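Form 7-S
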Amino acid sequence: MTLPPEASVTKPQKRRTMQDIKREFLAQLRSTLERLAKPADFDDLIARGILRRVGRRSYLLLKPKELPQHVADRITTLEATEAGLKVTIPPARSSRSEGRPRVLRI
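Output:
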């Protein structure tokens, strides 16, 4: 049994250099920092039925698929309860009051 000619040809893999890895890492870091710096409108999320406040920083997550990614990235704890999934989301710290730029420049 012989294989078709296209099945036996393998394409050479491009080797990733340290510069490629560093560039990818910095791009991911920059993206994460930009998402974390984006403010969350908790009142809007509550009004749309995505979250329900159950504590000072705790919410019941009612519609997980509709939670914006920049808010999901800030979840610090998850707890399964009888009422649903309880999450803790701290408010974004104000970087301007601390005299630091909003997004880290790399």
